Amino acid sequence: MRPGVLLYGPPAAGKDTVTAALAELDARYVPFHRLKVGSGKSAGYRMGTQEELAGLEARGDVVYRNKRYGNVYVVDRPGLEQAMEGGKIPIVHLGQVAGVEQVGALFPARWVRVLLWCSRASTAERSRQRGDTDTAARLTAWDATQADLAPYPQAGWEVRVDTDVTKPRDAAQQIDAFIRSAVAQP
Questions:
Q1: InterPro entries, alphabetically (predicted)?
Q2: Residue 167: which domain range?
Q3: Helix axes 168-184 and 15-25, enclosed angle (nearest 10)
Q4: CB–CB of 100/2 below 8 Å?
Q5: Fewer CB within 10 A of the end CB, N or C, for the chain?
Q6: Orientation of helix 120-129 relative to helix 135-149, angle to 10°
Q7: Assigned domain for 148 exists
Q8: 151 pairs with which residues across the strands?
Q9: pTM above 0.70, yes or no
Q10: Based on the number of CB atoms within 10 Å of its own CB, is 27 exposed (0-12), middle (13-18) or buried (19 or more)?
Q11: What are the tens digits of pLDDT across the range 7-58?
Q12: Degrees (nearest 5) of the Cα angle 7, 11, 15?
């Protein structure tokens, strides 16, 4: 079964940074660009319209959707199919456990569930360092992520990385090693 990575964690935990480190390690790793319907930051997203979203929903092609920061974010079947072409390994960033569970259940792949974590103070500092204008909203999202994670079994994460103490390249190597061993198993 084709592999993919479900990368979960609070804002500023290092999802983009670890994704970049994975891509440097092996060109098969590619970021999955979710469809974003709304405004604001467009880098790292496929910007879409309400009409496009309605079409995906009508065809049953929405695997997971969530609302945050006044926008709708979508993991869609056609986008995942395209991201996996040619043996690529998509890395899907998610901020909700429901998204991890839903993508894992509704799209056939050997999904590796990775928990990236950092302290609330690190989220605040990293958010300020990267120039976010909505750090308060990101801290609210950090709180929601911690609450969302609380009932989820720790065994549900195949790889867990504390980005307060683990360098991005080391995190990428841990994730890659797990994927290589998981894919090698019959």
A1: P-loop_NTPase (IPR027417)
A2: 3-34+83-184
A3: 60
A4: no
A5: C
A6: 150
A7: yes
A8: none
A9: yes
A10: exposed
A11: 999 999 999 999 999 999 999 999 999 999 999 888 889 999 999 999 999 9
A12: 35
